[in-house]
Design brief:
140 residues; mainly beta; 4-stranded antiparallel β-sheet
């Protein structure tokens, strides 16, 4: 399949930056990790907590799960935001942008919505913006 299931946009800063600003604090390389899981099987929507992204509704993962992480970057808070476009593999209603919080439900983990929101949706793709790096998906 030549059609991407996910894409990422990481802003480096609000203004142009020099190549020396891209160096990490220990003089090594600034690295972006980007992994896409085809489905949400590793991230089940179960449990009962007021901190979950499901608002008391039964939601399921309707896009691939995209993981992002930056290592060794010293660019300030702007670099911690991420915009991800995810292609839907399942249709649904009432979409929610969410990230996986490993600390929820006594360490079992759960989906949370804080810091993430949907910025656009068209066709079979939804774009979300989050203020941190983690595992992200759209729940419906």
């Amino acid at each position: 399949n030549s059609v991407a299931v996910a894409s990422i946009n990481v802003p480096l800063a609000g203004t142009p930056i020099s190549s020396s600003a891209l160096q990490s604090v220990d003089n090594s390389t600034c690295k972006l990790q980007f992994i896409v899981f085809r489905n949400g099987k590793l991230f089940p929507c179960t449990g009962n907590s007021s901190n979950l992204a499901d608002d008391g509704k039964r939601r399921s993962v309707s896009t691939p799960v995209a993981f992002t992480k930056l290592d060794g970057c010293s660019l300030g808070s702007a670099v911690h935001t991420v915009t991800i476009a995810l292609r839907h593999f399942a249709l649904g209603v009432d979409p929610t942008a969410a990230y996986w919080d490993f600390d929820l439900l006594d360490g079992h983990g759960g989906w949370r919505a804080e810091g993430c929101h949907i910025t656009g949706s068209g066709g079979n793709t939804t774009t979300i913006h989050c203020t941190h790096h983690n595992n992200f998906a759209v729940l419906m």
